[in-house]
């Protein structure tokens, strides 16, 4: 076979239209309707054909058509106006620039490097598999809107995830069409002399992995995407970035090495070439990018002469880790033997010993597997701050990872939570946004209050809102019909057989959506528990429901693909096929019409395995109501008026029985509450009670589910404090990092000889009266440690029937007296509040002003 040298011919735009290139390459168009309208106006038919892809559109217009357009003064004016508007958006001071530089945000970082294995920014750049990627995309977009100086880092997968279609009998079929980066909204990062910038990574056996760096401009935020498909690499290395979440463990490990270690190098190159200040904060979004810490340790050891331990402290001081799943399959884990191939033997990095790298991800704790290297554990060990993505998920994560902090109560595990959000402008239907912005002031929209106003108070009437909801539903129905038709043709039906698809779904029927990835815990087929009961709901002649379902299953997940087939086969039945449809190839483009068009968004995961979930938030932004298990974000924000909570059978351990019970509760809710409320109309044809819930959702949930709210919380609660510790430990000098490392080593070595010898209490008998003063004195032996190295604490709380402390609170004791031989007395006195069974213990924990949390070392010695 002859080697084909590919190249892409790009259109050269007439000078007056030249800004169109900038407008196409900055992905702000993906959430800026006027820019998309401009592109559409160049050739509406072509715009449809290229699925709203500006780069492809510009590449497909004929030179004659472009010349003709350049002669249209109205169009040229609009191009100039939007170009200027983009420039203003990119340069004007926004929320972050106006943050108080002296007070709470005095330490706000100059740059934050945000690492993620996937990004869902637009359907045009398919570099995501599901919620994790969409969240990362929404994080970048909202950071851009707020002016937060983030640099995103990821990989450019040559075939993205996969395209889903169905076989005749309902099996998922995967294809991997290759993307051509030259036809994507990307530019190659180049040196001043135009040669492409490169990063490289040493591999075992003296091999090297090279990558080039594409930049996707997401508004103000650059997203660096590493691409190993270049001529310098051998065939194996070229394939490292071939696709997302595919291939062997070795293949995925190489991807994660490139993402983490190569990613740091890419950030260095980008900062050097563009004169961007170096990041103080590195945000590791889920564990895939965890090796970023190893690369930063390598830099400090080799370039700044730090010891491994001091470098780890410096690196940790600037790292944020976010965990996204309590499901073990969602966490990257490798055999330690495989990781050793990359960091041991001939591949060992100078100053970064193999066993230190392995220790970062080791599962050497109760219940762990010592032969496994765990990327989430590495993320936690190498981070100053860690968080889950909803309050409940924070709690579940503290329980899941508490073995890393032995001696501490689960509530003290240093994992907080920031609840996910979604990018408003991406996920609100443009026609709905137009209506809202015509009628309400920006403040009324941001606060949500405008949605709660009646027309006489300047609000939007129920009639208008209801008509808007009907338009969104109809738009979805029209699109679903086209997709169902295409799917049947793909499945081998002849055009003559698919006439019925013109009438599937009813623009006036109660429309329920269910779309998400298909891991087992999300229970795609829970709705099929009682097929006859579901059929009755679907085919009710007066008050039917209709269900739109979509979702991809990971190709290796046989159970997931089996669930899809079950659902498809149910939906194929001629009795119900015009009331329940499965739409193949769930992606951002589908989501953008699906979520606005649904009246009800159904979510029935196995609690508490859904960390947050975000699709229901997107639905809520458009006035859809949630019908969901109290899991993830819904556990936090369901308030009785914004939708419905499906009761869970939490205590039932038999999985089948639990599914049966929860499905029955779902049917009950649909039959007795949801359906009647939707169809209960007044003389104007409006379901008043329903609309009250819609308004309440828009007004109270709308502001909370915004990713701007989420990013502000990251800035205030995580990025700014982490930037402060990063400057202290990883600034121009590293004295503090060295000091902390030395102190930790000393404390660890001395800890076995720390004891609580004896505790005396005054005022505590078997029964104590509320309001009484009690005093606790603890006599402790510290031997080689000083009183300043530790904190002695009373850990108190209520005692449950199993004699465990609950609602734990911690009170520090003060040094009272010193004795010979490193012995000390510490005491505290307190007035008792609250009544009931209480208990306490005394413990000693390490204490140092540079520690992130008392639990950091996982050392605690209690009264025995
Ligand atoms: C929002 C979204 C998701 C994530 O939805 P969850 O509710 O978190 O499961 C996945 N895929 C697409 C295309 C989305 O738009």
UniProtKB/TrEMBL annotation:
Identify the stretch annotated as signal peptide in this record.
none
Q: What class of enzyme is it?
A: transferase
Q: Give the superkingdom in one word.
A: Bacteria
Reaction(s) catalysed by this chain's protein: [(1->4)-alpha-D-glucosyl](n) + phosphate = [(1->4)-alpha-D-glucosyl](n-1) + alpha-D-glucose 1-phosphate
Q: Which family does it belong to?
A: Belongs to the glycogen phosphorylase family.
Report the EC number(s), separated by commas if there are several. Answer: 2.4.1.1
The coenzyme or cofactor needed here is: pyridoxal 5'-phosphate
All copies of domain DUF3417, residue ranges? 13-125
- Protein name per UniProt: glycogen phosphorylase
Q: Supply the SUPFAM superfamilies for this chain.
A: UDP-Glycosyltransferase/glycogen phosphorylase
Q: Which organism is it from?
A: Georgenia halophila
Q: Which UniProt keywords apply?
A: Allosteric enzyme, Carbohydrate metabolism, Glycosyltransferase, Pyridoxal phosphate, Transferase
- Functional note: Phosphorylase is an important allosteric enzyme in carbohydrate metabolism. Enzymes from different sources differ in their regulatory mechanisms and in their natural substrates. However, all known phosphorylases share catalytic and structural properties.
């Amino acid at each position: 076979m002859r080697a084909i040298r590919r190249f892409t011919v790009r259109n050269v735009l007439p000078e007056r239209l030249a800004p169109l290139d900038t407008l196409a390459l900055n992905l702000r168009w993906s959430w800026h309707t006027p820019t998309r309208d401009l592109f559409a106006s160049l050739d509406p038919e072509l715009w449809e054909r290229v699925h709203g892809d500006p780069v492809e559109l510009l590449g497909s217009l004929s030179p004659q058509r472009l010349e003709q357009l350049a002669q249209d003064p109205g169009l040229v004016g609009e191009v100039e106006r939007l170009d200027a508007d983009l420039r203003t958006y990119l340069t004007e001071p926004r929320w972050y620039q106006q943050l108080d530089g002296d007070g709470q945000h005095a330490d706000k970082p100059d740059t934050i490097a945000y690492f993620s294995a996937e990004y869902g920014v637009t359907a045009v750049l398919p570099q995501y598999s599901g919620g994790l990627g969409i969240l990362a995309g929404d994080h970048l977009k909202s950071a851009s809107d707020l002016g937060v100086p983030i640099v995103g880092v990821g990989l450019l997968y040559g075939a993205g995830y996969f395209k889903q279609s169905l076989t005749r009998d309902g099996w998922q079929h995967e294809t991997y069409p290759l993307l051509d980066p030259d036809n994507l909204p990307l530019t190659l990062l180049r040196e001043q002399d135009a040669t492409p910038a490169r990063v490289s990574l040493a591999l075992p056996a003296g091999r090297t992995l090279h990558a080039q760096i594409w930049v996707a401009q997401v508004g103000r935020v650059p997203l660096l995407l590493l691409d190993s498909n270049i001529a310098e690499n051998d065939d194996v290395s070229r394939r490292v970035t071939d696709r997302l979440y595919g291939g062997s463990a070795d293949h995925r490990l190489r991807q994660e090495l490139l993402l983490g270690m190569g990613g740091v190098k890419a950030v260095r190159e980008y900062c050097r070439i563009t004169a961007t200040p170096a990041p103080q904060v590195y945000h590791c979004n889920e564990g895939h990018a965890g090796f970023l810490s190893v690369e930063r340790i390598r830099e400090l050891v080799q370039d700044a002469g730090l010891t491994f331990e001091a470098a780890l402290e410096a690196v940790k001081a600037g790292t944020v880790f976010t965990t996204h799943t309590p499901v073990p399959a969602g966490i990257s884990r490798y055999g330690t033997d495989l990781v050793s191939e990359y960091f041991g033997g001939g591949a060992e990095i100078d100053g970064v010993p193999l066993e230190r790298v392995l220790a970062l991800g080791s599962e050497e704790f109760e219940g762990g597997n010592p032969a496994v290297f765990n990327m989430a554990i590495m993320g936690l060990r190498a981070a100053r701050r860690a968080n889950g993505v909803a309050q409940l998920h924070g709690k579940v994560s503290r329980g899941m990872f508490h073995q890393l902090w032995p001696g501490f109560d689960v509530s003290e595990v240093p994992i907080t939570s920031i609840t996910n959000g979604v990018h408003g402008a991406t996920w609100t239907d443009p026609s709905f946004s137009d209506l809202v912005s015509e009628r309400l002031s920006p403040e009324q929209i941001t606060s949500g209050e405008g949605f709660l106003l009646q027309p006489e108070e300047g609000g939007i009437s129920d009639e208008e809102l209801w008509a808007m909801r009907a338009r969104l539903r109809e738009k979805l129905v029209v699109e679903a019909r086209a997709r169902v038709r295409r799917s049947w043709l793909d499945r081998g039906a002849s055009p003559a057989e698919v006439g019925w698809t013109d009438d599937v779904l009813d623009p006036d029927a109660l429309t329920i959506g269910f779309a998400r990835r298909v891991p087992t815990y999300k229970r795609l087929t829970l709705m099929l528990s009682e097929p006859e009961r579901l059929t009755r709901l679907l085919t009710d002649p007066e008050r039917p429901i209709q269900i739109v379902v979509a979702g991809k299953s990971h190709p290796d997940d046989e159970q997931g693909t089996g669930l899809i087939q079950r659902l498809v086969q149910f939906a194929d039945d001629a009795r119900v096929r015009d009331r329940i449809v499965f739409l193949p190839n769930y992606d951002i483009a589908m989501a953008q019409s699906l979520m606005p068009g649904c009246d009800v968004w159904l979510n029935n995961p196995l609690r508490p395995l859904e960390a947050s979930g975000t699709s229901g938030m997107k639905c809520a932004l458009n006035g859809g109501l949630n019908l969901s298990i109290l899991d993830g974000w819904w556990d936090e924000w369901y308030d009785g008026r914004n939708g419905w909570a499906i009761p869970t059978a939490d205590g039932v351990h038999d999985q089948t029985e639990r599914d049966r019970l929860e499905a029955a509760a779902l049917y009950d809710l649909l039959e007795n509450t949801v359906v009647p409320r939707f169809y209960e109309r007044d003389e104007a044809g409006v379901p008043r009670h329903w609309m009250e819930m819609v308004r309440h959702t828009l007004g109270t949930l709308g502001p909370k589910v915004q990713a701007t709210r989420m990013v502000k919380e990251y800035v205030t609660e995580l990025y700014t404090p982490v930037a402060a510790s990063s400057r202290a430990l990883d600034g121009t000098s590293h004295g503090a990092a060295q000091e902390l490392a030395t102190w930790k080593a000393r404390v660890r070595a001395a800890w076995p000889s720390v004891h609580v010898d004896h505790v005396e209490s005054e005022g505590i008998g078997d029964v104590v009266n509320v309001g009484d003063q009690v005093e606790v004195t603890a006599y402790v032996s510290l031997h080689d440690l000083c009183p300043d190295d530790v904190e002695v604490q009373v850990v108190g709380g209520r005692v449950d029937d199993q004699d465990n402390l609950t609602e734990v609170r911690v009170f520090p004791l003060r040094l009272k007296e010193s004795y010979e031989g490193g012995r000390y007395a510490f005491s505290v006195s307190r007035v008792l509040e609250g009544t009931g069974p209480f208990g306490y213990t005394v413990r000693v924990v390490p204490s140092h002003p540079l520690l992130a949390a008392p639990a950091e070392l996982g050392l605690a010695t209690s009264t025995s």
